[in-house]
Design a protein that fits this description.
Blueprint lengths: L2 E6 L6 H9 L5 E6 L9 E2 L1 H8 L5 H18 L6 E6 L2 E3 L1 H4 L2 H7 L5 E3 L8 E7 L2 E6 L8 E5 H10 L2 E2 L3 H5 L2 H4 L4 E4 L3 E3 L5 H7 L9 H22 L5
Parallel strand pairs: 1-2, 1-4, 3-10, 6-11
Antiparallel strand pairs: 4-9, 5-12, 6-9, 7-8, 8-11
Helix pairs in contact: 3-6
């Protein structure tokens, strides 16, 4: 059975709403995961590298978000073979029809180790099939957001192995399929809707000033990332592994 894990601060007022939604769906195996407030030993926060990479350090909220998702990758990577998880955040409306048919969705997506169930921006993507009455897409860049995703043990293991340094937000890191080897797949329409409301992480992020002067090293790193992404897209289009 697919485990549904909901990342939520222990004192979050949004817990009751998520619990009510999930409890109304028969047969779903779900539980809360108390969001991390400290950096676990599995990760190293490199402040200097973050400033060089994204021109600012990560906020406390971003660090906690990163630590929480990474902890769940490690939890799944240590689970028995064949284990599958859906990771959700707690500020969502969920499609009960989709979540009530997770066994069918899991069966139809065998061979796909990671699927976004939401994205923050309309990122470029190719439609590569259909699954559970939805379009199956492969994103060709950064889609942003960690509101919800479907993940198998194999992808969790790759994320856990490839992502050990904290130098950019976790959604940016997960979307770097050219670096971590996990294709950035998704479904559309999304079975999740992010609730409107103030974001603590976004407010903290906007409060961090970025240097205004042209940074040649930063621009060079961005160009290198773009070239690696384009090469990865070409390999995937040709049916080659990353």
């Amino acid at each position: 059975m697919i485990k549904v894990r909901v990342i939520s601060l222990a004192d979050s007022p949004r817990r009751a709403g998520m619990a009510a939604q999930l409890a109304a769906i028969p047969g779903i195996d779900w539980s809360f995961f108390d969001a991390c407030t400290d950096m676990p030993a599995i990760l190293v926060h490199d402040s200097a590298a973050a400033t060089a990479t994204i021109r600012r350090d990560l906020t406390r909220g971003e660090l906690g978000c990163f630590a929480s998702h990474a902890s769940l990758w490690h939890e799944l990577a240590a689970a028995p073979e064949g284990s599958v998880m859906i990771v959700l955040e707690d500020d969502l409306l969920i499609d009960p029809g989709f979540f009530g048919a997770l066994a069918s969705f899991e069966a139809q997506t065998r061979g796909i180790d990671y699927l976004r169930l939401h994205a923050k921006v309309p990122a470029p993507a190719r439609v590569v099939g259909r699954v559970a009455g939805r379009h199956l897409v492969r994103y060709q860049g950064i889609a942003f957001g960690t509101q919800g995703y479907f993940i198998r043990k194999a992808a969790a293991r790759r994320f856990a192995t490839a992502i050990t340094r904290v130098v950019r937000p976790v959604d940016d890191e997960m979307d770097r399929y050219w670096a971590n080897g996990v294709p950035n797949m998704g479904v559309f329409p999304f079975p999740l809707l992010e609730l409107a409301g103030p974001s603590t992480i976004e407010a903290e992020r906007r409060g961090r000033a970025r240097p205004g002067a042209l940074d040649i090293g930063y621009q060079a790193r961005r160009l290198a990332e773009s070239l690696r992404r384009r090469l990865a897209n070409l390999r995937l289009a040709l049916g080659l592994p990353l």
